[in-house]
Hints:
The complex is a heterodimer.
Chain A: H1 25-34, H2 46-51, H3 53-57, H4 59-74, H5 89-108, H6 114-119, H7 122-136, H8 139-150, H9 156-165, H10 171-189, E1 195-199, E2 204-206, H11 209-212, H12 218-230, E3 237-241, E4 248-249, H13 253-260, E5 283-287, E6 291-294, H14 301-312, E7 316-321, H15 325-328, H16 335-348, E8 353-356, H17 359-371, E9 381-384, H18 396-405, E10 418-422, H19 431-443, E11 449-453, H20 463-473, E12 478-481, H21 486-495, E13 496-501, H22 510-517, E14 522-525, H23 528-534, E15 539-542, H24 547-559, H25 561-573, H26 579-596
Parallel strand pairs in A: 1-5, 2-3, 2-6, 6-7, 7-8, 8-9, 10-11, 10-13, 11-12, 13-14, 14-15
Antiparallel strand pairs in A: 3-4
Helix pairs in contact in A: 1-10, 5-7, 5-8, 7-10, 8-10, 9-10, 12-26, 14-16, 19-20, 19-24
Chain B: H1 23-36, H2 47-59, H3 64-75, H4 81-94, H5 96-102, E1 109-110, E2 113-114, E3 116-122, E4 125-128, H6 140-155, E5 159-163, E6 170-172, H7 175-182, E7 195-201, E8 204-207, H8 214-226, E9 230-235, H9 239-242, H10 249-262, E10 267-270, H11 273-283, E11 295-298, H12 310-319, E12 328-332, H13 341-354, E13 359-363, H14 371-382, E14 387-390, H15 395-404, E15 407-410, H16 419-426, E16 431-434, H17 437-445, E17 449-452, H18 457-469, H19 471-482, H20 489-501
Parallel strand pairs in B: 3-7, 4-5, 4-8, 8-9, 9-10, 10-11, 12-13, 12-15, 13-14, 15-16, 16-17
Antiparallel strand pairs in B: 1-2, 5-6, 6-7
Amino acid sequence: MRTSPESTAADPRSEAPQGVTLPSAEQIDTWFSGLDVGVGAGTPTVKELQASLSWRVTEPLRAVKARERLSLLKAGKLPIPTHAAPPTALADARRALEQRLRQVAPHLLPGSTPAELRALTLEHLLGRLTFAVHTSGLDSELWLLMIAVGGCFPDQAQLFALRRDLRRVSHRDATARILHHCGVWTSRLHSHLRTIELVHDRPVAFADFTARFGFNSGIQRVTRQTLSHWNGRHRFELAALTADGTALRTLDADERDRVLAWSGDDDSVRADNEPDRDETTVKLIVPWQTTVFVPEVPAGHGTATLTALARFSDNYTIAIGYDTIPVSSGHFVHRSLTLQFVSYLSMLKYFDEVVAISEATNGEFLGFSEALTMQGLPGPKVVTELLPIEHIPADSDALAEADADEPSDSSTGAGLPMVLSVGSNEPRKNQLTVIYASEVLWRQGKQFSLVVLGGRGDKNYTDIPDAVAALRAQGRPIELRRDVDEAHLAQAYRDARFSVFISIQEGYGLPVAESLAVGTPVVTTSYGSTSEIAADGGCLAVDPRDDDRIVETMGRLLDDDDMLAELEAQIEARHDTSWGDYADALWRIVEAGEAQK
Amino acid sequence: MTDTVSNIDSDDTVDASNTVDTSDTIDSSIRTLIGDLGGEAPAQSHAGELHELLATALATDLSAARLWLTWAAIRGELPTEADLIGFRRDIVLNGAGTALRGLGSRADSSIFGLSAQVEVLRDPILVDVHHTSSTSTMSGIQRVVRETTGRWASAHDLVFVAWADNGRALRRLTGKEEARMRGGDPSTAAPDQVTRLVIPNGGIMMIPELAADAERAERFLAMARFSSTRVAYIGYDCVPLTSGETASIPIAAHFPLYLDAVAYADRVAAISASTAYEFESWKKMLPSSGRSGPDVRTVFLAGDSTEPSDDDLAKARVAFTLRDGVPMVLVVGSHEPRKNHLSVLQAARVLWNEGQQFTLVMIGSASWNSAPFDNLAKSLQEQGHPLLVFSNSSDSLISAGYRLATVSIFTSFHEGFGLPIVESLRAGTPVISSNVGSMLELAERYGGVITVDPHSDAQLENALRSALVDPAVLEQKRRDLAANEYQTWEKYSSDVWDYFTAD
């Protein structure tokens, strides 16, 4: 333990402004030692702690915290540090704390010049910051200070608990309580060595899953297309989550590439085995009075972190809204997915704006937002930006190569007109209806092959492979294709006479856009987002719950070459937007959000 | 009104209600079904002929209601959406005869024969009281179900139903359950011999409970979508959807299944205008799945508080350690985060530290995620503050509490109604409550309520302080509440009935 600077001649307290009680260096050191994270000369003795200011003023808090610790210990959730303290640990910890405080100081102490702030010691900084936040009583400032002190973002309960404990206490006690509350989490998460970058002059884009994994389905595709289009054109900051979900952090070079330099289906950058990241010294991204843009659907504790950010910080928060299927069509998803989505909705509750990917989706989020009135909440504003229709990024060389390898992988239906059904195998996609309708048509004597293409989807749902196997055994020209790369996907759309996508509910309906992008007509659902895409031509709309009508429509399109040609002409005449248009539109929304603050 | 097909043509001398079905009764039920489908079945036709006749009758028209009724009657259970879609495709591809054979024998058959009796009721009014009939405990919803359906049962012809053990069929209640619902003595009810399954042909299916269990939800979904039976729900709230962070894990995960079924229903009687607004908002989520949702109407809920005896009051005084001149502040509600009890403890802590004298009594069951509340409450008690927490208290203790309290607090973040507000007012005790949703609605309808923003600790603290230090505040509120005219259970139950049964 350091010797107390209080005895030295130049007592910094003499310089403190009116009303500000500065913490001592000893108090800060004792705080570090008390975190049990291997900082300082070991855990302080009870006697040393009792001598410290914080021990006395936080006495009522400790009773509560002790109970919490006890329940955590019982549940086996409290990490027990095993490593010994390196000699520089305390200095490192003080340096990191000082860095964090200096990042937030200009924003919480706007009355001070940069030179004045530079001259302040760690103790002065901490004392002035706690004084400013305690005096203002603003949740947003408390949120920021908690991050600077603790090295992690608070959730709602943490912020409320501290705010309540700051009620009617002197500034001296307030400092001790802030240290104590933040210390609980710093101790649990070992976040005392983290540094922060406060971002206030450019938007922060949340890219977590996309940064960490090469997976490239709908949401990841939208995230990558949007952010990589912005890259180089606009200034913005990327942020992912720490592994524990308690903070936003910077991305490493690989992760940036995975978000911004995604090269289609190139497996070389698809490696997503995460390095065993040491997050004890990671740099956090702290958005402050700027726009936070969330194009992904976060899960896990990250939602709690973002909820508190949206609710308390002065940032303008915007999310892309894809669909609400897990709650509006509950039977189509696993219970755990519904549960996860409900947490996501609890986050959106406090967001400022949702950008829906279709008018149909807009209605879903608007319904949710309006219901919040009954809780006295304004709910997010909901706007629509329809996703673009663009070609699958297929590489023609790669395709030619692949085709050379497998000259004929559709032996089943060689020479026959092909009908294509794309979508992962889950009941909502309604592919069983397409298979059923095809069988009815085959029995009528129609000559065509059916290709069902898409991921395994729900592993417990085997109706699709079962039906395909049964029909193949009877000699029907039907084929189930999985793990198809984008080049072959594009080729399949080109080869098809028409495609069928009659999902019961879609936020957008990518397979409709993909089919239109290569000029292949689509039979699709007559309501919702797919009907919005169909409105501009090239599609026949059917009620996906009406078996007879689906049979009739597919049959007509198999027989009627004129109708097919007419639909193809309609596709030619469409004026569709591109990913660039979409990303530009989103940037305008983000900029407008910036202006709101 | 009810047509018990299992009795027809039975020359058995034993009372049919106490025997399982036999092949004879199955044949006669198929005859009835053929009639329902518009066919004709001569009395002397044997089983094989009956199946041919049934297939012929069915194949004339594949409308959903006919398929639903046929599937349910043949199987002796209720179909899911997938069951019925598959049944129709089987008929189209392979013919009605093959599809009917594909349904197999009745669900309750085994090598030991049939174990249940199946009745197809023509245009019945069925009331699902699955949870309420199985228990004598009283949650908020069970209270509503008892007060409502008990009155319906004495005024109208209806059939109470619950779900069979496998969760796939509706059955009549056992004698014991009937007694619970109709005010009899469950302990003297005769034991039941046989499960009596019920299948409606037309009529109305009333669902006054929160039927969120997966089996119930998916079969009500199919019934509402396909059958000729009108499905009507009492709608309590959308808390698990719009305040999911405050709902327990099983409820948050299953509530959307319930909503999915309600999406195909005919009517929802919402217990407050706020709840109706939530359901109307939710309906805006449905067009993207090609649905428009049910008709939603507000039928404002009743609420009351039983009168405690002098003995109850005396016992409660002891339990609450009441002292003359020290006011008691009462909070009723389970200790879950949504009820905002941490804010109440915070206000009390600040006021106690100021030197205010009052006893805080909190009655409510331990609940999902109540640990933060428990920890803070225990530490406040250890610091010597007059705080009492009751987690398993009797109704008489609660009703005595409402009368002994100076003021009660109910500052939840989100409610479908807010029964404790009405209970407190009816006991003559003013309430500090939230200025949002249904709680605001109650405050606008009834005098005696002080409203605060549930998200503002300061507002609650100030409201409680002025209630404690300024006698005029509560004096005025007590005068206000004396003029209240409360919604009665009679009015509520008859309004819901009229709405559900109106054309």
